Amino acid sequence: MNFPASPSSRPTRIVRQAAETDRLRVENLTTVIHSPRGEINAIQEVSFELQPGEILGLVGESGSGKSVTLRSLLGLMPGSAQSYGSVTWQGQELINAPSEILRRIRGGEIAMIFQEPMIALNPVLTVRRQIDESLRAHTRLNGKQRRARTIELLNQVGIPDAPRRLDNYPHEFSGGMRQRVMIAIALAGEPRLLLADEPTTALDVTIQQQILNLLLSLRDRLHMGIIFVTHDLGVVAQLCDRVAVMYAGRIVESGSVEGVFAQPLHPYTQGLMGSVPRIGVERTPLLSIEGTPPSLLDLPSGCGFNPRCAYATERCRRETPTFLSLADDRGVACHHFQHLVNTRSL
Ligand code: SF4
Fold first, then answer.
1. What is the spatial distance between Cα 78 and Cα 71, in angstroms, rounded to a whole number?
2. Which one of 305, 322, 324, 341 would you pick to mutate in the ligand 1 pocket, going by the greatest count of ligand atoms within 8 A of its CB?
3. Which residue among 269, 336, 339 is best mutated to probe the pocket of ligand 1, counting the most ligand atoms within 8 A of its Cβ?
4. Ligand 1 atom nearest residue 337's Cα
5. Which secondary-structure segment (H or E) carries 11?
6. Cα–Cα distance between 108 and 168 in angstroms, integer?
């Protein structure tokens, strides 16, 4: 997808004053998967905060840890995985929280939508049944009220002729409409936080645009925070307030969308930015990042990006860079970012 002309050309969004209680705080979240081939360091020392009404984009190549981060927040990793660190939501610690607390929060205060609704939806249950299950679990509405609420939810996500579609099965909807049904299920519990795992990747661009507009309007109307996982920087530019770039299971750069797009500090972010076409910019060859992401079973020593980085030094091969918090809510994990910015090598 092409970039829009500039992230700053997006309509201004109003992020209302944060209510302390609806803040998500993630500190040093680390998830290790124990596999027959050894320990997989799926994510390491991931830290960020999300305010109510804010949209954070998590970007990176496949296998960089984006989806694992989302699933680890809610304890949705398989039994072979172990998460450490801290995830607090409304002051409640979620890592190793009792299962009844996690059950109450999942699908209620925090909901998740997945990349492929055909896999996530149950093919043998009508749309009404699937939304109703969520309403039963997270509300005290009676049967009549739940039916009315189901229709309201389908209307809210833009499914035409909702009363008639209630008893349709997922295969009777188009791809875009199925994704809307997924969003309706996620909204049934009136979440304060929505985790969206590449929800538009499988859709064509016009449907993708409709879903992004829908998420923006829902965010504005319901004032919920959203974490949006994607590998598409065009989507980030259009949708998100802040962005965190992941590589080899770590956040290597973060900041406001405008700040990171205007001056990426990490060589990997620079490579990502150089690999997509820009509208309104004189034609220049697209760049690619040489090499492939490392295996999480066998990460390189030092900086995980060093085998692919044109600026790698001996120190990079020896020491893992610390994530440094900078001014203006920026942050980066690179030993040499200051030197590279000063010499305008980036
Ligand atoms: Fe490149 Fe070194 Fe920075 Fe890693 S720490 S991104 S290898 S310059």
1. 10
2. 305
3. 336
4. 3
5. none
6. 24
The span from the CA of 216 to the CA of 194, in Å, is: 12
CA–CA separation, 122 vs 188, rounded Å?
16
Whole-number Å distance between alpha carbons of 299 and 295:
6
Residue 308, classed as helix, strand or coil, is helix
**Beta-bridge partner residues of 176:** none
pLDDT string in tens for the chain (346-residue length):
444 444 544 544 434 444 457 789 999 999 999 999 889 999 999 999 999 999 999 999 888 999 999 999 999 999 899 999 999 998 899 999 998 999 888 888 999 988 777 778 899 999 999 999 999 988 899 999 999 999 999 988 888 999 999 999 999 998 888 988 998 998 888 899 999 998 887 677 887 888 888 889 888 888 899 999 998 898 999 999 999 999 999 999 999 999 999 999 999 999 998 866 665 556 665 566 777 888 888 899 999 999 999 999 999 999 999 999 998 889 999 999 988 777 654 4
How much of the chain is helix, strand and coil, in % rounded to 5?
A: 35, 20, 40
Q: Which of 197, 190, 245 is nearest to 218 (CA)?
A: 190
Q: Which two tokens stand for residue 111?
A: 């909901």
- Ligand 1 pocket, Cβ-based, cut-off 6 angstroms: 266-267, 303, 305-306, 309, 311-312, 316, 321, 334-336
Question: Measured in whole angstroms, how far is the alpha carbon of residue 195 from the centre of its chain?
Answer: 6
Pocket residue to mutate for ligand 1, from 316, 322, 346, most atoms within 8 A of Cβ: 316
List the one residue out of 307, 273, 312 whose CA is nearest residue 290: 307
Give the domain ranges of the chain: 22-247
| Fold classified for 22-247 | Rossmann fold (3.40.50)
How far apart are the CA of 59 and the centre of ligand 1, in A?
18
Say what the alpha-carbon torsion angle 123, 67, 225, 104 is, to the nearest 10 degrees: 60
3-state secondary structure of 246: strand
